[in-house]
Model the fold of this input.
Amino acid sequence: MAFGEKDLHPYVKLIVEERGRINTTDLEEKLRSTLDLSEKDLEPLRGRNDDRFSQTVRNLVSHAKANEQGIAEKHGYLIDKTKRPAVFFAKDPVNSSEGLPEKIDETEIEKRQQRQRSYVASKVDFDRINKERKLVGDAGEKFALSWERNRLKALQVSFDVFEEVLHSSKLFGDGLGYDILSRKDEKGEPLFIEVKTTKGPLSTPFYLSVNEWHFLQDYQDQAVIYRVYNFDEAKKDGKIVRLTYEDIQNNYELESRTYAVFPKK
Done:
């Protein structure tokens, strides 16, 4: 099956939130390096030097209805159609209103781009040891996703929690460094959530990949771990504790358990 415009929206949302701003050319390159494109996606267009996927990405721009300032709003992100190529921006969810969407400011964009690392998303599940752990982990992520949306609803935020809280690891795979993209509070600052689930008590050890640990370090003021414990898989219910980078540094010990092994030259 080929990707359609609707299929791409959540992926675009996550990329734009991480970078703050990205033009159409770079966005297409990022999507190609991340998604598992089908033969249909890669089918050359008649009389053109590109393929069906390129056309689909361009359609994100051409089919987006812009306001008088040339700004289009799509699924929680903005497209400036006055630029060539068009530029995608993260949306300020608090200071935007219907018909008058606002981009995040330049200071925030620069901050995100300076901190952005090459976290290569991958469908390879390299830190789940067995099938049972994966099933529990997936169920815990879904529980945490619902819990997070309810947390923001209780704060009576002005934005749509179903649009702003996304299960990013299900879209991009486990290589992002986090599982859920959310917002801290009604002010709309991004929150990156890594979910770690256990059926046991809070004292049960959990595992962080190198990628996840580096992400927590780099985004320590915006990234947290949701430690789901006493999780009942049948009832899909448990308890959650939020752990910050500082919490891990002060209250936990990190122990290396795996190594990358290369032949000697």
Strands lie at 21-23, 71-74, 77-80, 87-90, 180-183, 190-197, 223-232, 237-243. Residues 131-251 form one domain. The chain is about 35% helix and 15% strand.
